[in-house]
Amino acid sequence: MMVWQMAARNLLRNRWRSGLSIAGIAVATAILIWNYGFFDGFFDLMVRGTTEVDIGHVQLQDERYIDQPATYDYFAWDEELQDTVSSTAGVEAVAPRVRLFGLIGHEERSSVARILGVDPKEEPRVTVMAEGVRQGRWLGEEAPKQGAAEVVIGRGLSQSLGVGVGDELVVIAEGADGSMGDGLLEVVGILETGNSRIDRRAALLHLEEAQFIAAVEGAVHEAILRVDNPGSAPVLADELQRRLDAIDRSQVRARSWQEVEPGLYELLIYGDQMNRVIFLIVFFVVALGVLNTLRMSTVERHREFGVMRAVGMSKPRLFWLVSAEGALLGFIGAAVGGVVGAAATYFHATAGLDLSPFVEGDATWMGVSFAERIYFIMTWKTVLYPVMGLVVVSTLCAVWPAVTAIRLNVQEAISGRT
Amino acid sequence: MEMETSQDERALIEVRDVHRIFRQGEVEVHALRGVDLDVEQGEFSVLAGPSGSGKTTLLNVIGCLDQPTEGTIDIGGARVSDFDTKEAAKFRLQNIGFVFQAYNLIPVLSAYENAEFVLMLKGVPVRERRQVVMDLLKEVGLEGMEDRRPHELSGGQQQRVAVVRALAGHPSVVFADEPTANLDSDASESLLDLMWRLNEHHGVSFLFSSHDPAVIERCRRVIRLDSGIVVADERDKEEGR
Questions:
Q1: How far apart are CA A305 and CA A418, in angstroms?
Q2: In-domain check, residue A243
Q3: B173: domain range?
Q4: Among A220, A251, A276, which residue terminates a domain?
Q5: Which of A118, A314, B34, B175 is such that its CA lies 20 to 30 A from the CA of A331?
Q6: What is the pLDDT of residues A192-247, one digit of tens each?
């Protein structure tokens, strides 16, 4: 008779009690997996909404621009710098940008806009802004040689100005040299990225056009980088900074998204800690239930344990028998919960979870809109951590009953005096 | 932990000046007060006496389930009174069989599995286990009932399974504490017949603890205890079958 077989039969002795414990473990496992998938999806949305739409994984800016962004705090985007950045290990793509604030008007209405000069070919390799065009099209590969310059504007700006694709706008902005730059623009696309900072105020122009308006020909205010591992962006930024210092461009600072958006990064850490606390609370509640089941089960069997010991069963073997019951209880519950939780999480990872019934209007948090669906993230960790955790918890819950069993006085146990 | 094989001069069990004192708070209960006893190989003996005379306590200390407060116990030349719990468990597994008052079969195991339990603990191969257990079950009249769980067997049948479990590991001695206490007279008679037969066929010693007259009548030797001492030792008694 194998230990596992005996453990299984012992669990079946009180089907209701064992069944309820298994159900408790299963529900806890499923909730933890779902919760894990939700939070990973939630934070991924925030990170991607921030890095892949706006700030990239690593940013290069003039050190003065970091302290107080001003049009005149630009840096030369020359070939040496571009080569240095592009050849850094881990860098997948680089997109230079010109940033300035200006006034954009259409007939009787005008609005302050965040003007972004972008490279139409490089920008889509770093951000998903081009994918956010809901009407019209993305900027052409080349800037028009004559006539109005092309502009893609955010949905909010288009609404406040009352313009659509094909309408003409006028832009006025202060250049880096103090002059007032202006230009005639034609709306070629309306943008909706989910990032409110872009959607409400952004106006995207060809890089050369923005350089001309800002009077910073051949220079940029920032370059944003896409890296192969966003989690290790700080390490890459440090390495890049060393390389910049080596070519005597130390005034250009390389900063990871964690440094650029410390609030978001802290939120992720806080979220991770919160997840651990939730895990611990669930583990604790499950442990109480399992402990109760196993303790009851063993207290009822003192005489049986006494007989097993009397006929020669060793203490380690008896300990293992009782522990196996806890492990089996945990395994069955966690397996059932794992399947249910994984199925629910997979469903929301593919179909998404519509949060709009739970948020009012265009709810945003740290610039990220939650008006759309949240897509859960399911990895092996999402399922394995809760499953393994609860199997371990359930097995550990058997330790106390098992120790009680092996410490029984054999004669007293056999005679039923315990 | 196997017993010594060359025991021509010595008894199978040698109990010397054994005391057992239980302490319950400030109170000391002297359950055994200097017991001296020899049990030979192949004996069919009973510890008899009124309740509280110390017969179960003596059976427990001889059976390595308890340790004497004073005195020595040797079984097959091994000083079992000096064993720690681990050594005692190993010795019980290899050398001793037990039959308890309340059957005490493991409810989740079938008759066959209960009977093979000791062999499994000893690490006997499956095929050999099956042979030994099936032969014994047949011998005690439980052939065809091997798949039944304890609750599907009568009290007498359960006690027969317990006897098979006790004998399966080929012990040199079987200790039986009030084995007939929960049985009716027919079942008791039948069980005693069986044990007598097994004693004769297998040469294994049986030491009972009982105040059942039926048991006392059937044993060749009656060791009477009172207040923790041996007050009479009736040897070579006529078997009353």
A1: 11
A2: no
A3: 13-234
A4: A220
A5: A314
A6: 987 788 889 999 999 999 999 999 999 999 999 999 988 889 999 999 999 999 99
Instruction: Examine residue B208 and state whether it is found in any structural domain, yes or no.
Output: yes
Contact between chains at A6 and B85 (C-beta distance less than 8 A)? no
A7 and A95 belong to one structural domain = no
Pairwise CA distance, residues A130 & A136, whole Å: 11
Q: Structural domain of residue A374, as residue ranges? A: 3-51+264-415
Q: Examine residue B6 and state whether it is found in any structural domain, yes or no.
A: no
**Interchain pair A311, B93: CB under 8 A:** yes
Tell me, yes or no, if B120 comes closer than 8 A to chain A by beta carbon: yes
Nearest CA in chain A to B113: A1
pTM score? 0.77
Instruction: With residue B224 as reference, give the H or E element that holds it.
Output: strand B221-226
Work out whether the CA dihedral A358, A361, A366, A370 comes out positive or negative: positive
Interface of B with A in 124-183 (CB under 8 A): 165, 169
Specify if B241 maps to a domain.
no
Question: A357: which residues sit within 8 A by CB, 6+ positions away?
Answer: none
* DSSP state for residue B234 in the 8-state scheme: E
- Residue in B85, B109, B118 closest to A311 by CB: B118
**Shortest distance, CA B51 to any CA of chain A (angstroms):** 14
Optimal mutation site among B51, B55, B65, interface A, most CBs of chain A within 10 A: B65
> Do A341 and A386 contact (CB within 8 A), yes or no?
yes
- Whether residues A194 and A281 share a domain: the answer is no
Q: Which of 83-112 (B) contact A at CB < 8 A?
A: 85-86, 89-90, 92-94, 97-98, 100, 102, 104-109
B65: nearest CB among A13, A310, A416: A310
* Interface touch B92/A317, C-beta < 8 Å: no
Domain count, chain B: 1
Interface test with A, best of B86, B108, B118, B167 (most A CBs within 10 A): B108
Half-sphere CA count of A45, side-chain side, radius 13 A = 27
Residue of B nearest to A312 (CA): B93
- On whether ipTM exceeds 0.85, the answer is yes
CATH number at residue B47: 3.40.50.300
From A314's Cα to the closest Cα of chain B, the distance in A is: 6
Out of A9, A303, A314, the one facing B108 most closely (by C-beta) is A9
Residue B5 in tokens: 């094989």
pLDDT in 10s for each residue of chain B, 241 residues: 555 544 456 789 999 999 999 988 888 899 999 999 999 999 999 999 998 899 999 999 999 999 999 999 999 989 999 999 889 999 999 999 999 887 789 999 999 999 999 999 999 999 999 999 999 898 888 889 999 999 999 988 998 899 899 989 889 899 999 888 878 888 888 888 888 888 888 888 999 999 888 889 889 999 999 999 999 998 866 554 4
